[in-house]
């Protein structure tokens, strides 16, 4: 049994050990902070030197962000450039300086026009950087030629998120870029994939040759034993003493092999997988129905993209159908946003330009009546009413002259004003109905395409055994029709029933589908309630996963 003095000494030793560890940790953190500041300062000097090497001055926005990071003692993990006038030399200098700075993870270029040479410089930097995970090119005026450079740099890069919002590349360019994200076969590989295949094949051949050489050496018979070395007798010296001459052994020279050369850009590109993209955002990018086919092929062949944002494009019913067909064999995608893509069901085409104009005139009839009333009341004391319908009343100026004598009183019959017959004739001229754009006729097969797309979506939602991992679909600002909204509601109810009947943790994942507010009020309210329940179930499942992993658990109670 330990005495009180022994227990106290043990406690002091433990406290001393904790203090020592905390002091070591503090010194380690201080050393890391000092090394971080030194790296940022070296980056500042390298960027200045590279910019002047390309006969350019350092961009003030870049220098300011580096200096701020050095003053705060943090890494330059994010670089945001907005509304700047840059050239290809500026981007070459930027890429050369930041190529070996592994702390940079996010690069954002917003509202900066980029030509093909600038995109080529940016593509070289993205390919070579080992840790750049997010690239945002927002409203950078990318042209069709930029698709080729993006298609060559995004595969085999470290990017996990790519934003190409507000850039209209064109149908052919989008088709080329999206298909480059699909891992091709060895016989139909892109340039980078072919390089990777060649590197792997060369490594396999070198390993096989080394193994064969080792086996051949092991199969050789052992060498014969060497004869004993002859000892030469030395001649007698002047003193008559005989000495034996020792055989001189050559000094051993250690051959140090040269260090292996650093991996080149091609080697680093070949060592990476085809693509690691997890999020692709193409909002308001001018995609049409032809691009929808490429998106469907991308979803069917890509196995890394989990979040796809296509809002604000012109995919239309056929483009949506191609996307839904690609989702049948996709097992990775979780979030799909196709809002505001011009998807209209057959019910959305009801009506005509004449009906729309009549409805607008009926809605503005009250405003026209008010204008007529204001003109009739002020006709006797005002000038002619302007086009806007607001009368201008003239107020006489004050005068010091004697007032004129009063006019003789007129009989009451002469005071009656004639009826205003001009207002009825001029209403159509003074208050014309604003023009209403005629409703475009439905494209051939639009209703059938929307119905087929909704059939595919409802099949994915209602089937508990589907391979799809889709968890959220945004269809807002599209006209799916009353029948389409009701079918989506039935599919969500079937999904909820399958989730309730499954065992804990083994059922299908919750799915939320957001539709336009133009659906019937009763159906929209039920959809809203089902989506809220699905979101709550998703949060609950996420909390259970964290608790199972040990992130959120009960605290251990220590009794004194």
From TrEMBL:
A family per Pfam: LRR_6
Key words, A-Z: GTPase activation, Leucine-rich repeat, Repeat
Disordered: annotated span: 1-24, 218-273, 398-447, 540-560
Entry's Gene Ontology BP terms: nucleocytoplasmic transport
InterPro entries associated with the record: Leu-rich_rpt, LRR_dom_sf, RanGap
Keyword Transferase: no
Native species: Allomyces macrogynus (strain ATCC 38327)
GO cellular component assignments: cytosol; nucleus; perinuclear region of cytoplasm
Keyword check for ATP-binding: no
SUPFAM superfamilies assigned to the protein according to its UniProt record, in alphabetical order: RNI-like (SSF52047)
Compositional bias annotation for Basic residues: 11-20, 236-250
MF terms in GO: GTPase activator activity; small GTPase binding
Regions of compositional bias (Low complexity) in chain numbering: 1-10, 410-427
Gene3D superfamilies, per database record: Ribonuclease Inhibitor
Protein name: Uncharacterized protein
Pro residues composition bias: residue spans: 432-445
